[in-house]
Write a structure and sequence with these properties.
Layout: E1 6-11, H1 13-30, E2 33-38, E3 44-46, E4 49-51, H2 53-63, H3 80-87, H4 99-113, H5 118-127, H6 130-133, E5 136-139, E6 148-152, E7 160-164, H7 165-171, E8 178-182, H8 195-201, E9 204-207, H9 212-221, H10 225-230, E10 235-239, E11 242-243, E12 246-247, H11 252-259, H12 265-272, E13 283-287, H13 294-299, E14 303-307, H14 314-327
Parallel strand pairs: 1-2, 1-9, 2-5, 9-10, 10-13, 13-14
Antiparallel strand pairs: 3-4, 6-7, 6-8, 11-12
Helix pairs in contact: 1-2, 1-14, 4-5
Length: 330
Amino acid sequence: MSASPSVVLLAGGAGGSAFAVGLRDELRARGGELTVVCNTADDLWLAGLRIQPDVDSMLYGLAGVKDTAKGWGRAGDSLRVAAELHAWGVGWDWFELGDLDLGAHISRTSWLREGASPTTVLARLQARWRDEIGATLLPMTDAEVETHVVIEDSGDAGGAVTIHFQEWWTRYRATREPERFENPGMTGARPAPGVLEAIARADAVVFAPSNPIVSIGPILAVPGIRDAVAAAPGRVVGVSPIIGGAPVRGMADVCLRVAGVPCSADGVAGHFGARADGGLLDAWLLAEEDAALAPAVASLGIDAHVRPLWMAGPDLTRALAADTLAAAGF
């Protein structure tokens, strides 16, 4: 077992980017390497720009420039351009795009329109903070894949309507009951260059404490990625995003309900399943508050590790990363 492990992290959202920082720091101390496969199913076109919320959250978090109070966007950002766009009736007035943040979106869109792939674009973005990031960021796919939510129409006509995930999540705060989630573009998607290779050589694959349905789920749904994780040479370890029967952040409970998955640490572990039984996990970290569920996780054929999961500060986050690596055998 290598003393300098190479780890692939599947992640999305605020929880994923926070965990990635702790994992990066712990691996740096051990001389290890981190590759992050980012969820890109949150992506959208808005005001003529390609927006990648989860990618940017990871980029800013690892670079140390993220607004940690909000959990997304750039620290110290302003909204002068956004206010001007809204005055012109462009974009969504409930979807905040900071001035510094817009710099990344404009750069990304410019490079994409020049013919660069999303993988190349992300490499250019992270090059600005290469030393600070200390990891390799990869999109899950170069294809345009989005997450749409089918909800019941509240208007007089009735029936169902489809909206972008960001509208459901940010504007409505998941209060409009979804019938299902869809990922247009997924069927024809392929893993981004380097993703399968990173998984195949990794000493461990880790599922961040991200939303299992709309963050980790789309990554695994890209044709080829789930099979690669199942065949990974190292252990596959997941960190529960559920503590005490509730999501740590966001509205993952609604997503889990729609998918028919119990909102519990053992429920999410069962959703991913044991690798020994055709699933994906070898080990699962669950919170001390959920210690009573450890036998249920073990009964699935997944090693259960009860640890403190609250990422309340850098020290606790790094300690969680160390516990995760221990569960992977390091």
